[in-house]
Amino acid sequence: MKAIRIHAHGGPDVLSYEDAPEPRVGADDVLVQVRAAGVNPRDIDVREGKSGRDFALPIVPGCDVSGVVLEHGAQVTRFMTGDEVYGRADMVRSGCYAERVAIRATELAKKPSSIDHVTAAAVPTGGLTAWQLLFDAPRGFKGASLRAGETVLVHAAAGGVGCFVVQLAKWRGARVIGTCSTEHVEYLRSIGADDIIDRTRVRFDDVVRDVDVVVDLVGDDTQRRSMHVVRKGGVLLSTVSPPDEVEGAARGVRTAFLTVQPSALQLDDLAMLIDGGTVRTEVSRVFPLDAAREAHELLAKGHVRGKIVLKVL
Q1: Cβ atoms within 10 Å of 198's Cβ, excluding its own
Q2: Can you give the pLDDT at residue 141?
Q3: Is 275 left (phi over 0), alpha (psi -120 to 50) or beta?
Q4: Is the pLDDT at 155 greater than 90, yes or no?
Q5: In the chain, what are the domain boundaries?
């Protein structure tokens, strides 16, 4: 099969479009004919050797996929040949920048029927991350999650994770404040943000106070300044780097750092929300598989609205 493989860590030029071995299908696996693969910042970390995991090279990058079931292992009963599915794969086993990928059945769900494969490939990492941030992240006591009426500040709200955070928070009944650059203001308004802060014109900490939850998708100075806008007893959540627990404790702010986990059940819930028109995603650019280098170069520039997707078949 054709795939993108990495033989050495480095810049986009290390992404090689070439022949690759067929993935091995275990008893709990599903072999998926890849129709589209999402491009994520984590893919860049893997390419550069900065992911924090030890990947044996060569590796096929990519964890977000949408496609069609070609076959399944003996222990799999949830899917049949021909089913349209989407999910988030483990790159250690088999990456999605390829014509076929073997994925654990527990990492897959039926694709939302109302969207095509390109759009579906933009959902798994962003949608699961948002879901887990808002509904599963540690909140200081067991079983707590975002409540109706709470106020959420979302940084990089127009991005591949932020757009889902905005929509899921609104679905739960929260008030949402989103930060973005000028060109994304109207987009944020269209997906339901109540208040929008153009970060190129206004410092968020000059106008925001006492929010219940901050979702930090930026890190660095943005994360440090966010500590000052959370109410006592509120929460600062990040997917970028662990917030300062010492400062958080001193201010009475709970903190959590989240690494997204695969979940077929949550993908099922997201599919229902998408098919019901509650949640939609944004695909900013589509590239063919053999143009993965260009896709990585564009993502590295930052400020991408929604997701970049590779169309495979």
Answers
A1: 15
A2: 36
A3: alpha
A4: yes
A5: 2-123+281-311, 126-257
Q: Is the pLDDT of residue 133 over 60?
A: yes
Whether domain 2-123+281-311 has CATH 3.40.800.10: the reply is: no
Tell me: pLDDT of 268 over 50: yes
Buried b (16+ CB within 10 A) or exposed e, 245-257: eeebeebebbbbb
Torsion of CA 175, 123, 7, 288, to 10 degrees: -120
pLDDT in tens, 11-55: 999 999 999 999 999 999 999 999 999 999 999 999 999 988 888
pTM of the model: 0.94
Residue 86 CB coordination number (10 Å): 29
Given this chain, do its domains 2-123+281-311 and 126-257 carry the same CATH topology? yes
Which superfamily is assigned to 126-257 in CATH?
Medium-chain alcohol dehydrogenases, catalytic domain (3.90.180.10)
Distances (CA, A) of 107 to 56, 73, 102, 267: 21, 14, 11, 9
> CA–CA separation, 310 vs 295, rounded Å?
8
Q: What is the DSSP string of 49-77?
A: T-SSS-PPSSB----EEEEEEEEE-TT--
| Count of alpha carbons within 13 angstroms of residue 107, beta-carbon side | 26
